[in-house]
Amino acid sequence: MNFDLNKKKLREVNNYLQNIDRKDNKRKFELSNPQGQHAICAGLKDEIDVTIKGHTGYYCAGMNQKANIVVHGNVGTGVAENMMSGKVIVKGNASQSAGATGNGGTLIIEGDASSRCGISMKGINILVKGSVGHMSAFMAQKGNLIVFGDADSDLGDSIYEAKIFVKGKVKSLGADCVEKKMDEKNINELNKIFKELNIPEEAKKFKRYGSARKLYHFKIDNLSSY
Amino acid sequence: MCGIVGIYLKTKKYEKKLGEFLSGMLDGMAARGPDSAGFAIYSKENKNIYKYSICLNQMSFSEFKVKISKILKKIKLTNYSDHVVIETKDKPNKVIEILENQLKSVSLVGYGKSISIFKQTGNPKDVVKKFKLSSFSGTHGIGHTRMATESAITTQGSHPYSTAEDECLVHNGSLSNHNNIRRFLIKDGQKFNSENDTEVAAGYISNQISKGKNLESTLKKSLKDLDGFYTFIAGTKNGFALLRDEIACKPAVVAETKDYVAVASEFQAMAHLPDVNSAKIFEPKPGIVYHW
Questions:
Q1: Are B286 and B230 in contact (CB under 8 A)?
Q2: Of the four, B47, B80, B228, B237, which is 20 to 30 A from B278 by CA?
Q3: Nearest CA-CA partner of B164 in B248, B266, B74, B235
């Protein structure tokens, strides 16, 4: 089913996609002419496939649950912000705060992501095939930020228990972020992510970064909840 | 909020459409700044002819025409709503003095051999229609839609700010040390017409350039001297430069094709431009001066 956003109002299209009639068989949708509008496909909550043909504005696929969303273009600020589950793939570049506060699911950016990618992430897996901008994974709590290219300055500033993997160069690490040993457990975990997503990449080529745990009050008793 | 836009034509193909492109860009940024709008259009200079863009404020065009014709001879006047562009061979020192002393109720928005500049309160969608922006041609232009924060919604509080010949600045963000910088600049001979923070940044740039610095090194120096958050587009007769502060909270996106470079706060401001979907689109990095 196709929606042309030049002809149909975004609010109507979002409303339709947010309230899928589960008795209906329609599960594949295509949106054309997004024209950089904001909040395209925000708040989807069913297992549907949506393809967006063009560039989107802020908060595309925000709060996503279960849906698979592919953007054939660039995305503005906060793509897949606060995503709970599902998968969002961006074929182009992403603006700042990609995957911000994401709780779960997978965000794949095939180009570059700008500043503060994965800020305050809470369990999402973010894979950036290009490079990430400065202050990425700022205050990141849980989940994995996996960068195939380089990371700009202050990576992982004030990080909690999220894991950062970078294959390229890191310009500088932020406060309380340190390089950590890439042990077998980490390699296996990362390879598992690549395998599940069918990405031909080797975990051992990546370096791992995480919290030195000097800035926040880490309690070993609460480990299970981190 | 506030929205900023700029378009620089790399080829002659779209020179007649420059105003139409810029008008659409300001339209697209109306939601980011519904209080006022303004734009500067640069076109090829005409030998010794200077253009003075004037806001008439309360004065009617016919009254202004009578008054100015008595003082300045051999002038061409073009009226755009409550603005007038005077074209004359008379040099800035003379014309500015006349405006300041004999026509106090009108205000000079900007001047130069290449620049025409217009700004007014109201929704950007109305402002661009009022000044018939889509009818303008030129080589490059910049514009602004304002959501007022630190100073009132007035023509003087609107962008772009032009503080020297053929220079102007639009700004998304706010500066926190502008009062201090303004004091230093006033001591150094710079004049200001508003309480606005952006005018201080424009004055800072003009002050540096008047001392022989180029635009790029001036903007690099501003990273140390101007405290606050900002995305700037600074226009000169040769092109424009773009700078985001090192934190880069204020957005910017660049689209480049073989014919033009477009800059805007959000992509939706440039969605109407030709071939934009196949353009090279990227987000400018913090603390780096880009210029075209």
A1: no
A2: B237
A3: B235
Nearest to A114 by CA among B219, B56, B215, B250: B250
Nearest to A36 among B271, B283, B286 (CB): B271
Decide if A143 touches B, using CB distance below 8 A.
Answer: no
Whether residue B200 is predicted with pLDDT greater than 70 in this model: the reply is yes
**d(C-alpha A210, C-alpha A215), whole Å:** 12
- Nearest partner of B88 among B109, B71, B66, judged by Cα: B71
Each domain of chain B, given as residue ranges in start order, spans 3-44+114-291, 45-113
Flag whether pLDDT at B30 surpasses 90: yes
Distances (CA, A) of A109 to A114, A117, A126, A130, B239: 11, 10, 8, 8, 33
Dist CA A150 CA A143 (whole Å): 19
Best probe of the A interface among B246, B256, B268, B280, by most A CBs < 10 A, is: B268
Nearest to B283 among A57, A58, A114 (CB): A114
Residues of A in contact with B268 (CB under 8 A): 35-38, 57
Tokens standing for residue B145 = 């839609």
Mean pLDDT value of segment B50-58: 96
> Which architecture, in CATH terms, is B45-113?
2-Layer Sandwich (3.30)
Q: Does domain B3-44+114-291 have CATH number 3.30.1330.60?
A: no
Q: Within chain A, which residues score under 50 in pLDDT?
A: none
Alpha carbons B47 and A42: distance in angstroms, whole number: 55
One of B2, B55, B168, B249 is an active-site residue; which one? Answer: B2
Structural domain boundaries enclosing A104? 2-225
